[in-house]
Design brief:
The chain has about 270 residues and is an alpha+beta fold. It has four helices and 14 strands. The protein has one domain (about 30-265). Helices cover about 25% and strands about 35% of the residues.
């Protein structure tokens, strides 16, 4: 009888150990969470990145409408390019590396170095599943700071949307920007940068870039919190004709248009 009990206990122990090993191996074999698309972090300024698109021999007034749209977008572009250089570089570099699963913490980690302006940074992006989403954290170190949580966020596992919260910098660890994004893979996508500096005069100001359908298939909505003014810009991504609505600049709520040569025209 004792022999039978010992045999049963041995078999049961073996089954439990096998199950543990099976579960462990299964977890290791599971793919890492999908990285959010690059467009979830980096806004496109391609259509408003080169003022030389205009014909310099023409009078500047000819390009007033497109020129005003360009200046509005260029201002945000400069802020994003300068202020988010390290976070952007660290996120884009993640796509060149494979994640490692850590069973003790039940997460995946992308670890690598990234360089910017002659400085090398150590980046560690972690992700773990939470229901139908993935939670993300990016910690960055250099010779002057260690494991700074520069940004964090959450994304849907089906890649249809999510958000990021970015901190200012290691010497000023306060919220700077919230990035909201969405995409439906067919006809629309959007990316919105919102100023979230606590107590800042522009807290709540934003720039929203979108892809849609129709005559004008790209748009920007730019909200200046200090002026309480919303600027709407719409254009055809292929032909580059478009229009702008800016009550503070034009002193009206009308649309102001430009043609495929970026020259002012009366709106149809």
């Amino acid at each position: 009888m004792n022999s039978l009990k010992k045999t049963a206990a041995f078999v049961l122990t073996g089954i439990i150990l096998f199950a543990i090993v099976l579960v462990s191996c299964k977890k290791d074999d599971e793919p890492a969470p999908p990285l959010p698309p690059q467009s979830s972090f980096v806004m496109s300024f391609d259509d408003f990145s080169n003022a030389s698109d205009t014909l310099v021999q023409r009078e500047a007034q000819t390009y007033r409408n497109w020129g005003h749209a360009f200046s509005m977008v260029a201002g945000w572009n400069a802020i994003i390019t300068a202020g988010l250089a390290v976070p952007v570089a660290s996120f884009l570099e993640a796509f060149n590396h494979e994640a490692v699963y850590h069973p003790d913490e039940n997460n995946w980690t992308w670890s690598y170095n990234v360089s910017h302006a002659g400085q090398t940074y150590e980046a560690e992006l972690t992700g773990y599943f939470e229901a139908d989403s993935v939670v993300w954290e990016m910690r960055i170190s250099s010779n002057s700071f260690t494991d700074f949580l520069w940004y964090r966020g959450k994304s849907h596992t089906d890649q249809t949307g999510g958000y990021w919260i970015l901190m200012d910098q290691p010497s000023n660890p306060q919220p700077l920007l919230k990035i909201d994004w969405y995409q439906d893979f067919d006809s629309s996508a959007g990316l919105r940068y919102t100023n979230v500096v606590p107590g800042g005069p522009e807290n709540g100001g934003y720039i929203f870039y979108g892809i849609t359908t129709g005559t004008f298939d790209r748009f920007y909505n730019i909200y200046n919190k200090g002026q309480d003014n919303l600027t709407d810009i719409e254009w055809d991504h292929t032909n580059l004709n478009g229009r702008i609505q800016d009550p503070a600049f034009y002193d009206d709520s009308d649309w102001h248009c430009w043609n495929t040569d970026l020259q002012d025209i009366i709106c149809p």
